[in-house]
Design goal:
The complex is a heterodimer of chains A (345) and B (116).
Chain A (H helix, E strand, L loop, with lengths): L18 H16 L2 H4 L13 H11 L3 E6 L2 E7 H9 L7 H4 L7 E2 L4 H10 L4 E5 L5 E6 H27 L1 H4 L7 E7 L9 H12 L4 H21 L4 E8 L2 E8 L7 H5 L8 H4 L8 H8 L2 E7 L3 E9 L11 H13 L1
Parallel strand pairs in A: 3-4
Antiparallel strand pairs in A: 1-2, 4-5, 6-7, 7-8, 8-10, 9-10
Chain B lengths: L2 H8 L2 E2 L13 E4 L3 H7 L4 E5 L5 H9 L3 E4 L7 H10 L3 E3 L4 H10 L8
Helix pairs in contact in B: 3-4
Classes of the chains: A alpha+beta (345), B alpha/beta (116).
Chain lengths: 345, 116
């Protein structure tokens, strides 16, 4: 599989579905459930009355650039008239006829508070191009077409995309914007003993931070696995929990866990695959496979474990980043040149 | 083979928010109830079959970018675990079948372990 850059655009013309693109496809589907019809519909809808003539409908469609309109009589929705109805009237040379002669009377309506997926289901199952939208009291509040949905989803996607891009942009320029001989970013997390409900939260936050700072998915995954195992060790094996400390520099990531006991009696034995001191209650949850430290060793470039019984344990894990994996701005010199060029104009 | 095909053929119940499962193509499969083994063995975008149902499977699935977790023998995660899964974009599926049968059916459908 090719590595995909984290700053890749959301929409790609080719058919290679990258991880980023796959995430966005799912996001579109999610949006169909999250977005409400009321958020994407056209409101208010242009309406007509049953006694208007089809020539009036023609004028309305032409001037308002719409392709359909709900038909209202005394505040009640009585039908819908579409461009297809208008074409029929034109073919029959009967534009003087009343709207009531050509309109569709049995009209499906949608509630503004329903998710967009409800509209999509009807559009997919029928040939209708537009549906009137009503409030909970059944009053007409707007009209929805497939075009409205496409626009609404694109707007929401762009918003999502911008939010995350702004965060990534800010984070990536951290190392470039702050001048020092050696800049690092330190993240600290307090982990409580026995707190299985929040197990993995710190690891997830660290992984996300690394992605925003420009880490490749592979580096973020290696750090995530290593720190997850270390985090679970604090939860399972310590007396009072402990602290996770992650120091991020453009060229390396140093992750460290510190606790105050009970300490490891035999480090070589602890490193042996399959060896675990986890109690049965914890094993039932799927922990205690005796693979944790081995997993960490596999994921990091350098691992240092120091423990004294009765005093505590310190685990240090390092991942070194190759020149093309460095965090922060991937190409600061080129951008700086561009920025100066802009300023001199 | 998409996740939609798997859900249909194995008659799985989606516990997390329904998304377009036909847009997700699992790359491989993995089965274990020991989380560290999963951490070591499950590949990216794989389907993980397990009897575990507590909140930590969500953290594992999120950290490994798994396609979905199939929870067997009707084991049911807490509502808080399901909410966390929705938040992290992790798909949890449930079945009454035992792990052995689920894995067998997935294999018959053509899902394999990914070579390292």
């Amino acid at each position: 599989m090719t590595q995909t850059g984290v700053n890749e655009g959301p929409i790609r013309a080719d058919r290679v579905i990258t991880d980023g693109a796959a995430g966005l496809i799912t996001r579109v589907e999610e949006l169909a459930y999250e977005l409400k019809i009321g958020e994407v519909m056209t409101s208010p809808a242009r309406t007509v009355t049953p006694d208007m003539r089809m020539s009036d409908v023609l004028a309305l469609f032409r001037d308002a650039k719409v392709s359909g309109a709900p038909v209202m009589a005394n505040g009640e929705l009585v039908g819908i008239v579409s461009i297809a109805d208008l074409i029929r009237a034109l073919q029959e040379n009967n534009t003087a006829a009343a709207v009531s002669e050509y309109m569709t009377m049995q009209v499906t309506t949608l509630e503004a508070s329903s998710p967009v997926i409800e509209a999509l289901k009807i559009f997919a199952a029928t040939k209708v191009g537009r549906l009137p939208v009503v409030d909970q009291a059944g009053r007409l509040v707007g009209i929805i077409t497939k075009g409205d949905i496409t626009r609404g989803v694109l707007r929401a996607l762009e918003y999502d995309y911008q939010e995350e891009e702004v965060r990534k942009y800010r984070a990536r320029h951290l190392f470039e914007d702050i001048v020092s001989d050696r800049t690092s970013l330190t993240l600290r997390y307090k982990i409580k003993q026995g707190d299985f409900a929040h197990g993995g939260n710190a690891s997830s936050h660290i992984k996300r931070a690394l992605v925003r700072l420009g880490a490749s998915p592979q580096i973020a995954r290696r750090c995530g696995i290593a720190i997850y195992e270390a985090e679970m060790n604090l939860i399972i094996h310590t007396t009072h929990g402990g602290t996770i400390r992650v120091e991020i520099e453009p060229h390396q990531i140093v992750m460290e866990t510190i606790d105050d006991g009970p300490g490891i009696e035999d480090i070589d034995l602890a490193m042996t695959p399959g060896y675990s001191t986890a109690p049965d209650s914890v094993r039932e949850l799927g922990f205690g496979a005796g693979m944790g430290l081995k997993n960490i060793q596999r994921c990091v470039d350098d691992m240092y474990l120091d423990s004294t019984v009765g005093r505590g344990t310190r685990l240090e894990m390092r991942i070194f980043l190759k020149p093309d994996e460095q965090l922060g701005d991937p190409n600061p010199s080129a951008e700086r040149a561009g920025r100066n060029g802009g300023a001199s104009q | 083979m998409t996740l939609q095909d798997i859900i249909q053929q194995l008659d799985l119940t989606a516990l997390t928010r329904k998304t377009d499962f036909s847009g997700i193509t699992p790359a491989s499969g993995y089965a274990s109830d020991l989380l560290s083994c999963v951490m070591a063995g499950a590949r990216r975008k794989s389907v993980w079959v397990t009897l575990q149902a507590h909140a930590n499977i969500v953290a594992v699935a999120a950290l490994l970018d798994l396609s979905a977790v199939i929870i067997t023998e009707g084991a049911m995660p807490d509502p808080s675990a399901i909410a966390k899964a929705d938040e992290e974009g992790v798909i949890l599926l449930s079945t009454q079948m035992p792990t052995f049968e689920v894995v067998g059916r997935l294999w018959e459908m053509g899902l394999r372990t990914e070579s390292r």
